[in-house]
Design a protein that fits this description.
0% helix, single chain, eight-stranded mixed β-sheet, six-stranded antiparallel β-sheet, 36 strands
């Protein structure tokens, strides 16, 4: 009958008479013209899955596609099957499954993904089932067992794992996200640090795909005529993290969406949303900013269209939205960009804030100069405070564990550093009765690999065999792993 299966995804449901309690093989006896497309599911007389196969490549005749042992009589306590995770919250998982019509009580074991069975948390319940008391933003494995001991038939085998991730618990305002320390460069799909990116056509390459992406360098696939070349947090310095959507692989009308976590704003007096955006290009995508009111999305609370910036290095645009008009306790923000097609329409956002209007503006323009083997001078532009708090340490240190210094200047000499080492620093303005600003940073820098007296000058002659220059190429010199010059 397989040879007559010429159209569609399913010909019919066939009944195959097989002997009980025998090892059984399913063998490809004739590959046909496209054996890379074939597949099947085999079900027991009592509805449990017995075997399945889905080809992904052409297969030779004689290949064993599946093996199973027949069992005509259902086991006294059959294994659960067709398990389906139906929902998750920040503290619970909901699921359903099939058992072939037997059982009524079931055992569930849950633990962090990869846990060894027997070390997780065991509970019992019905079908559909629920396991609660879970931690937010955590990936778990779930195992399920049919418990037929009430009828004297013991228990089934455990089935699983079935993996799921709980949602993030709502953040409590004030909320600020600058993408600097909690995001991997290149993140473009899924959930990271409770920020979600999902897209109609996930991807970030010119050959296809359109997604928000965390970056620390300018996009190059669309050329230099679109998008920013830096972030807003550390600008004008190049190198900080921002989120951008590159249209070079997109089709007209495709969307990518970035969602903040839920944020509890009940403790705020005059809640507002602030964010920075950059829209440089001649075929600009539209930026939609939507608000979740607890039951539905309010689309286009902000709608920004057309070119808004004149160059890649043009400063980001600052904008705010009054959230008090929505009369809700917990809010979520969605940033949607809709492509107008390739290629000059890259949008970027940075520094998302949900809080009361700041009474202590944050510092900006962080930088460093006079680096030596054991010291460096750091600087910033104050938001207007009379004091600043600087925290520094080796790159990657946890905020709160570094060296903290309070100063009345906008520069600070850091001494006692280690030679040829990567450091970073943060700055926070202190406004007395008006409190502290949001902390800005990190700004990273290297201490020198040697003293000036131990250096000498080499000559580097650049050439191009075609005769039109390097067309944007550059080289960097490293000594002991430290970048010392780029040309």
């Amino acid at each position: 009958l397989g040879q007559s299966f010429t159209t569609g995804t399913q010909l019919l449901s066939l009944t195959m008479s097989l002997c009980d309690s025998m090892p059984t093989e399913v063998v490809l006896t004739s590959p046909g013209s496209f054996s890379n497309e074939i597949g099947f599911n085999i079900t027991t007389p009592y509805g449990a899955p017995a075997a399945s196969f889905q080809s992904s490549a052409n297969i030779a005749a004689g290949t064993v596609l599946a093996t199973f042992t027949t069992q005509c009589t259902p086991p006294a306590c059959p294994d659960p099957f067709n398990v389906n995770i139906t929902g998750v919250t920040s503290s619970a998982v909901f699921f359903g499954f099939s058992t072939g019509g037997t059982g009524g009580t079931f055992n569930f074991e849950v633990g962090p993904t990869g846990f060894t069975q027997g070390t997780g948390t065991v509970s019992s319940g019905g079908n559909p089932g629920t396991v609660s008391g879970l931690m937010p933003n955590t990936t778990y494995d779930l195992y399920i067992q049919n418990d037929c001991s009430g009828s004297g038939n013991g228990t089934s085998a455990w089935v699983g794992p079935f993996t799921f991730t709980t949602l993030c618990a709502p953040f409590v305002a004030p909320y600020f996200e600058d993408f600097e320390t909690s995001f991997n460069v290149g993140f473009f799909d899924g959930i990271e640090n409770c920020v979600t990116i999902d897209s109609d056509n996930p991807g970030t390459t010119p050959s296809g795909g359109y997604s928000w992406e965390v970056r620390n360098t300018a996009q190059t696939t669309s050329g230099t005529g679109t998008g920013p070349d830096r972030d807003n947090t550390l600008a004008p310095t190049i190198g900080g993290h921002f989120v951008t959507a590159d249209v070079s692989g997109s089709a007209v009308g495709e969307e990518t969406r970035l969602l903040t976590p839920l944020v509890d704003i009940t403790g705020l007096t005059s809640p507002e949303l602030e964010y920075y955006y950059h829209m440089h290009g001649t075929n600009m995508a539209d930026l939609h900013v939507d608000i979740w009111d607890g039951s539905a999305w309010i689309n286009d609370a902000h709608l920004i269209t057309g070119t808004q910036n004149t160059s890649q290095s043009d400063p980001y645009n600052d904008t705010t939205l009054d959230l008090s008009t929505y009369n809700i306790d917990t809010i979520q923000v969605r940033f949607r960009v809709t492509s107008d097609g390739c290629c000059s329409g890259d949008v970027a956002i940075d520094d998302i804030r949900i809080s009361d209007p700041p009474t202590c503006p944050a510092p900006s323009n962080l930088g460093v100069f006079n680096e030596t083997t054991t010291s460096a001078d750091v600087y910033w532009t104050s938001g207007g405070a009379s004091h600043a708090i600087v925290e520094y340490g080796p790159a990657g240190f946890a905020v709160g564990t570094g060296t903290r210094v309070t100063t009345t200047n906008d520069t600070l000499s850091l001494t006692g550093l280690t030679v040829a080492t990567l450091y970073e620093f943060y700055v926070q303005d202190s406004c007395g009765a008006n409190g502290l600003s949001f902390q800005r940073g990190p700004f990273t820098f290297y201490t020198s690999a040697c003293d000036t007296a131990d250096r000498c000058n080499y000559i580097v002659d650049l050439f191009d065999t075609f005769g039109d220059g390097w067309n944007g190429a550059e080289i960097t010199f490293y000594q002991n792993g430290i970048p010392v010059a780029t040309i």
